[in-house]
Write a structure and sequence with these properties.
By secondary structure, the chain is α+β, with helices and mostly antiparallel strands. The protein folds into two domains: 96 residues, no CATH class; 90 residues, 3-Layer(aba) Sandwich (Glutaredoxin). It has seven helices and seven strands. The strands form two sheets. The chain has a five-stranded mixed sheet, covered by helices on one side. A two-stranded antiparallel sheet has the order 1-2. The protein is globular, with a radius of gyration of 19 Å. It binds FE2/S2 (inorganic) cluster. The site of FE2/S2 (inorganic) cluster (FES) has 12 residues, from helix 5.
Length: 199
Amino acid sequence: MLKFHFAGIFMIDICATNHAEVNCCCKERGFYMEKLNGEALRTIDEIVARHKNQAGPCIEMLHEVQNELGYIPFEAMEKIAEATGSSAAEVYGVVMFYAQFTTEPKGKHVINVCLGTACYVKGAQQLIDRVEKLTGAKVNRTSEDGLFSLDATRCLGACGLAPVCIIDGKYFGNALASSDFTNEIRRIVREEKKAGAKA
Ligand code: FES
């Protein structure tokens, strides 16, 4: 187990095994570890090379890696750390600090449930429980089958319609009282099952 400390605040343990091994504990603990393909590694190298001599290179690199790959793999954090003279733990600390960064690939369908105050008071937690049950995705994680990501978000700016959720970019207001939100998830689940059966 490797231990990383960040500014005395974060301490992360990352197991020192080959993370592609079935028994690797890291994924369970929130670290998405899988062998990246050559193209993804080349993309990371290009981004690092492009930004390493700029001011504030770490954030720029992280943004680009996330835009290109959809998430920030641990290999990218290692390469960015090396290029910027930081430790992997420091780069990890930056990734954890900013809510827009994610260390896990997103599912095919992304569901956002607002957990801002107005939505929370109007029952957003019940919506999260419902989505977890329907999709198998835990909050801020992706389902095992890779189909759904469930993200709790801050205020989406539509408090008058609380609780508010988004499915693949489409807004649903009053999502607890109206059946539109759950019906849409059920529809997607049905379609994905059908597509899976045909494949
Ligand atoms: S608190 Fe949810 S939209 Fe504002």
